[in-house]
Amino acid sequence: MAERERRHVRVAVIGSGFGGLGAAVRLRREGITDFVILERAGAVGGTWRDNTYPGCACDVPSHLYSFSFAPNPEWPRNFSGQPHIRAYLERIADTFGLREHLRFHAEVLGMRWDAQALHWEVETADGQLTADVVVSATGPLSDPKIPAIPGLDTFPGTVAHSARWDHDTDLRGKRVAMIGTGASAIQIVPALQPDVARLTLFQRTPPWVLPRADRRITAAEQWLHSTFPATRAARRGLLWGIREMQVSAFTKRPDQLGLVEFLARKHLKKAVKDPGLRAALTPGYRIGCKRILLSNTYYPALARPNVDVVTAGLKEVRGSTLVAADGTEAEADAIVFGTGFHVTDMPIARRVTGAHGTTLAEEWKDGMAALRGATAAGFPNFLTIIGPNTGLGNSSMILMIEAQLNYLADYLRQLDVLGGKIALDARPSAVQQWNHTIQERMTRTVWSRGGCDSWYLDANGRNTTVWPGTTSGFKKATLQVDLAEYEVLRPPAGPPADRTAPPRTEVAA
Ligand SMILES: Cc1cc2nc3c(=O)[nH]c(=O)nc-3n(C[C@H](O)[C@H](O)[C@H](O)COP(=O)(O)OP(=O)(O)OC[C@H]3O[C@@H](n4cnc5c(N)ncnc54)[C@H](O)[C@@H]3O)c2cc1C
C-alpha cells in the first residue's frame, strides 16, 4: 500500500457543505488538526454548489441562515441567492484554514469498523485511510431523486433535475415541463416563465405559499451591522425568536394554524383571479404539513397565459408527449424534475458497515433512528450531522448543525478524558428510548395530523426526518454527551484477529 493509502487520521469528515465545513471549524477550535474532509466533488459548498437552477435562493433569512461564529454583515438580501451563499462557504474554507484538510474527488465508497483496531477503514475514490472517528455530513438533500417514469428514455429532449441544472441547454422559446411543486420548483417556475414558449406544471399536490418578505439589505444596514456587531446579533436574535415562537403550533397545536391558512389563501386570491385555477392551487391539507413555501412570484407566474397547470403527476412519457395520471397530455422540449432527494434512504447508509457486519441501511430497514440525531448502535465513533429527526420545517438548519457540533466536540472531549485507544458505541436501549420519545411527540404534530403525504415521511409513513421541537430544545439535548447512553469500547486483549477483509464497497447507480 502506498504511503498516502495508509494514512491514519483522528477524524475523517465526509462532505464539505455547511455540515462538513462547520465540523471542520469546530475541530480546529477544539485544537484538533489531525483530520481530513473527504468531498466527492471538486469544490466546497454542498447544496449551494450543486443547486444552480435559475432563481435558487435560501428561504430562511440569510442573517439566520449562516454560522453564528462567522457572521456576514454584507448579506445583500434578506433571502440571499445561491451565488452569495456559495461564496460565503468558500470564504469559510479560507478564513478558517480548511483548505489543507480538503480532499476533493474523494467520494467515500465504503467504510468498515475494525473492532480490533477500534477505527474505521475508509475506502474513497482517492485511496484508503483509517480514522478513529468519522463525521458523516453528506447532507439530507444532496442526492437527487428522479422517479421511474415509464417511457422517460424515449423523450428526445433535455431531462434535468433541479439540483443538477444543465447550463448548456438554452430553454428560451422552448416548451418546458416542470415536474413537482416543492421548494425548488416554486423558485424555478417564475424564473423560467417569462422566457419559455410554454411552461406545463405537473402538480400532484399544491403547496401552501406565503408572501416572501424579501428585499435588498441597504448599504446603511450593512454599515451598521459591520460597525456595531450588536445590531447584527439583534437582527439574528429576532429572526430566531420569531421562528421559535411558531414551533408549538406545528408540534402541539396544529389547529392554531388556521390564521396562517387564511393569509395564504389571501395571497393566492390576490395573484390568481381565475377561480378554476385558484381552486386547483388551493391545498386540501393543513398548512405546515408539507414545508410552507415563500414566494411573491410563483402565483403570478402561474396566472400567465403561457403556463398550464396539470393537476396530476406525470405518469408516462411517449416521445415528446407527457401523459399525466389523469390522462392530460402535453408536448415538451425539456423536462425539469423538481422531485426532491433521497432523504429517508440516505445513500451513505448503504456504504457504512458497522461492528456487527451489517450496513447502516440494513439496520435502518424499518426506518432511520439515531441517538440525539447523531449516533447509531453498532456504529462506534460514527456521528452524523443532520441525522435522523434533526430537520426543521420553519427555521434555519444551521442552528441544528451547530447544536450537533457541540455534541461532536463533547464526544471528542469524552474520548480524551477516558484516554487511550477507545470508542463509544450508542447503547441500543438509549437509541430506542430517544426515538420512542420522538415518535410519541410526533403524533401531535401537523406533519402527522395535517392530512398530507410528504417527504418528511419514510416508506412506512414514519416521520424520521423532522425534529418535533424548538431549536433551543435540541441545543439543550445535544450540549453534552451522556456517557450512560454509551458503551465504552477498548481494544480486545490477545492477538489481533484476521483483519484482511476489505471494507464493503457499494457504488451508487
Ligand atoms: C435548493 C435548496 C435550498 C435550501 N434552502 C434552505 C434554507 O433556506 N434554509 C435551510 O435551513 N435549509 C435549506 N436547505 C437545506 C440544506 O440542505 C441545508 O440547510 C444544508 O445546506 C445542508 O448542509 P450539509 O452540509 O448537511 O449537506 P450538503 O450541503 O448537501 O453537503 C453534503 C456534501 O457531502 C458530499 N457528499 C455526499 N456523499 C458523499 C460521499 N459518499 N463521499 C464524499 N462526499 C459526499 C456532497 O457532495 C456535498 O458536498 C436547502 C436545500 C436545498 C437543496
TrEMBL record:
The keyword NADP applies. It holds the Pfam family FMO-like. The keyword Flavoprotein applies. Its cofactor is FAD. GO terms for molecular function: flavin adenine dinucleotide binding; N,N-dimethylaniline monooxygenase activity; NADP binding. Signal peptide: none annotated. InterPro entries: FAD-bind_Monooxygenase_sf, FAD/NAD-bd_sf, Flavin_mOase-like. Residues 490-509 are annotated as: Disordered. Keywords: FAD, Flavoprotein, Monooxygenase, NADP, Oxidoreductase. Belongs to the FAD-binding monooxygenase family. Catalyzes a Baeyer-Villiger oxidation reaction, i.e. the insertion of an oxygen atom into a carbon-carbon bond adjacent to a carbonyl, which converts ketones to esters or lactones using NADPH and/or NADH as an electron donor. Thus, can convert bicyclo[3.2.0]hept-2-en-6-one into the oxidative lactone products 2-oxabicyclo[3.3.0]oct-6-en-3-one and 3-oxabicyclo[3.3.0]oct-6-en-2-one. Is also able to catalyze the sulfoxidation of methyl phenyl sulfide (thioanisole). This is Baeyer-Villiger monooxygenase. It comes from Streptomyces angustmyceticus.
